[in-house]
């Protein structure tokens, strides 16, 4: 892939600024209660690849073949960064369930109420989703490409006014020094999509947060410590999402100003380098076709 020119970076930056300024206004009161219907993520915590010519966090789980995933599982079956993959995804739900009501006033339906419903059981993942080696949060399905018709039927059955779908990529990177001696940090990149009760996409953005540094000596570091700190990075990214909703709301947020102030102080996005192409705007409205095919969409949200 060709390297991006300086003019391309400048243009990209301008596009991001303009797209940020043009954020769609939504009513939070019309989105409650909300149902989390899909949480997926990568299978381990790889190093950020600074040699890649592609720059940018996309929130898409790390591309990994099924064969590679099986090999990783066999070789690293005792690696804390691998065996806790689902735990990290489960915590994303916990963080959303706690922070969304506190910071936006949007209530979240209990997980068991959603996944045990007949409507959710009948909702099937796209065949193309099954080809990915990503992990899913406990008992959740990969509905990242759910059609608007299926989403509408599911939400109506659940009595929910909106749906939340999250894709996570977890990585680690040097904070200071070298990979032999210094400190490293964990990075959580969440791509969170929200659909309204009609199954229409109303927001689809990326949020990035980092952990506190972990000491690395002689090339070794405490993997358990890094894993345990990932929850704080998840919280940071989720709070960014909540504050983003608050800032684009057309009505008064029902959360306390104290909680909002605290969250604003704790949530700061940190751009990082990843293996997937840069995307600067939101995706198109979710398609009406239930059997959605995986494809690259234009990033300008449908009117």
Could you explain the architecture of this structure?
The protein is α+β, with helices and mostly antiparallel strands. It has 9 helices and 7 strands, in the order αβαααααβαβββββαα. It has helices at residues 6-21, 66-75, 80-83, 85-104, 111-115, 118-122, 148-158, 223-247, 257-266; strands spanning 34-41, 135-136, 162-177, 181-196, 201-210, 214-217, 220-221. Strands 1, 2, 3, 4, 5, 6 and 7 form a 7-stranded mixed sheet that branches. Helix 4 packs parallel to helix 8 (223-247) and helix 8 (223-247) packs across helix 9 (257-266). The longest helix is centred in the last third of the chain and has 25 residues, at 223-247. The model is unreliable at 1-22, 54-59, 255-259 and 267-303 (pLDDT under 50).
Give a short summary of the structure.
With 303 residues, the protein is an alpha+beta fold.
């Amino acid at each position: 892939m060709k390297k991006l020119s300086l003019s391309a970076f400048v243009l990209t930056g301008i596009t991001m600024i303009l797209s940020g300024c043009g954020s769609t206004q939504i009513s939070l009161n019309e989105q409650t209660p909300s149902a989390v219907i899909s949480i997926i993520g990568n299978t381990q915590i790889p190093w950020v690849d600074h040699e890649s010519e592609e720059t940018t966090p996309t929130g898409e789980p790390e591309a990994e073949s099924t064969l590679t995933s099986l090999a990783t599982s066999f070789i690293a079956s005792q690696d804390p960064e691998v065996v806790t993959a689902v735990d990290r995804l489960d915590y994303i739900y916990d963080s959303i369930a706690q922070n969304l009501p506190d910071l936006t006033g949007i209530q979240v339906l209990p997980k068991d109420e959603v996944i045990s419903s007949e409507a959710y059981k009948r909702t099937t993942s796209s065949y193309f989703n099954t080809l990915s080696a990503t992990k899913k949060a406990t008992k959740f399905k990969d509905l990242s490409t759910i059609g608007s018709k299926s989403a509408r039927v599911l939400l109506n059955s659940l009595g929910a006014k909106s749906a939340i779908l999250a894709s996570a990529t977890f990585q680690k990177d040097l904070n200071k020094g070298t990979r032999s001696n210094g400190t490293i940090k964990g990075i959580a990149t969440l791509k969170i999509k929200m659909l309204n009760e009609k199954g229409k996409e109303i927001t689809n953005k990326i949020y990035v947060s980092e952990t506190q540094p972990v000491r690395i000596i002689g090339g070794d570091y405490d993997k358990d410590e890094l894993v345990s700190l990932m929850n704080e990075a998840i919280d940071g990214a989720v709070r960014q999402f909540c504050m983003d909703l608050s800032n684009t709301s057309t009505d008064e947020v029902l959360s306390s100003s104290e909680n909002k102030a605290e969250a604003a102080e704790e949530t700061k996005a940190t751009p990082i380098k990843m293996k997937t192409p840069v995307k600067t705007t939101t995706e198109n409205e979710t398609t009406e076709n239930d059997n959605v095919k995986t494809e690259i969409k234009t990033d300008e949200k449908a009117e």
